[in-house]
Amino acid sequence: MIQPHTFSFLKELTENNNREWFMANKDRYEAARENVIDFTAEFIKELQKIDPQLDKELEAKKCIMRIYRDIRFSKDKTPYKTNFGISIPTHGQKAGRAEYFLHLASGNSFIAGGYWMPQADHLKAIRQEIDYNGQTLKAIIEDKEFVKLFGDFTTQDQLKNLPKEYSADNENIKLLKLKSFVALHNLTEAELMESTAPAMVASICKRIAPLNEFINNALA
């Protein structure tokens, strides 16, 4: 489970996002990070039950994203992220294809999956798969339980114009215009602080797994 002290740390970091405060509270950060690593280890065990394609050697610690922001090209110069990001790749041990992504933040936690903003060649391959096998993807995203958990898949960010090589009368045009292919479900702090939280979050990922499989098949 995620401990209350982890969310407390993230809430206070949001209010005091500067190096002086962070260094004075470094021990709290380390405790929160250890809690997230422990949670991630349990989460991965549960995920492996529902997605056998996950790398068996995946290490929880390596799935935790850095808390330090890259501010070189950003107008926002706050030095730290105010969340813990956990990226669980579905192909080997590196990101770059479909994944599960757990975002932990004070008042804004969620579990997501799919592929956010794929690179150009991957986007082309996914669109080609949609054009050939759109009914397979529709069966996944129009399933009642999927819609209940994640809402309308086609409402995420789309191109304003038609993608090259596809016409407006294509039966899958709404899917072909998508820039990302992500299913997202919000989580409460109370849910994540339950002892059953790793299994609960994994059960949501069970509905994401077919989407990830569709995307990875497109990139095979």
Describe the model:
Strands 1-2-3-4 form a four-stranded antiparallel beta sheet. The protein is globular. Helices cover 48% and strands 13% of the residues. The protein is an alpha+beta fold and 220 residues long. The chain contains nine helices and four strands. A hairpin with a 3-residue loop joins β2 and β3. α3 (26-50) crosses α9 (197-218). It has a single domain (4-218), classed as BirA Bifunctional Protein, domain 2 (2-Layer Sandwich). The longest helix is centred in the first third of the chain and has 25 residues, at 26-50.
Describe the structure using short key phrases:
220 residues; alpha+beta; 4-stranded antiparallel sheet; BirA Bifunctional Protein, domain 2
Concise structural overview:
The protein is of the alpha+beta class.
Q: Helix and strand succession?
A: HHHHEEEHHHEHH
Low-confidence stretches: none
Going by helix content, strand content and strand pairing, the class is alpha+beta
The CATH class: Alpha Beta
Helix content: 40-55%
Strand content: 5-15%
CATH topology: BirA Bifunctional Protein, domain 2
Radius of gyration: 19 Å
Draw up the topology in text:
Blueprint: H1 4-15, H2 19-24, H3 26-50, H4 60-63, E1 83-89, E2 99-105, E3 109-115, H5 120-141, H6 144-150, H7 173-176, E4 181-187, H8 189-192, H9 197-218
Antiparallel strand pairs: 1-2, 2-3, 3-4
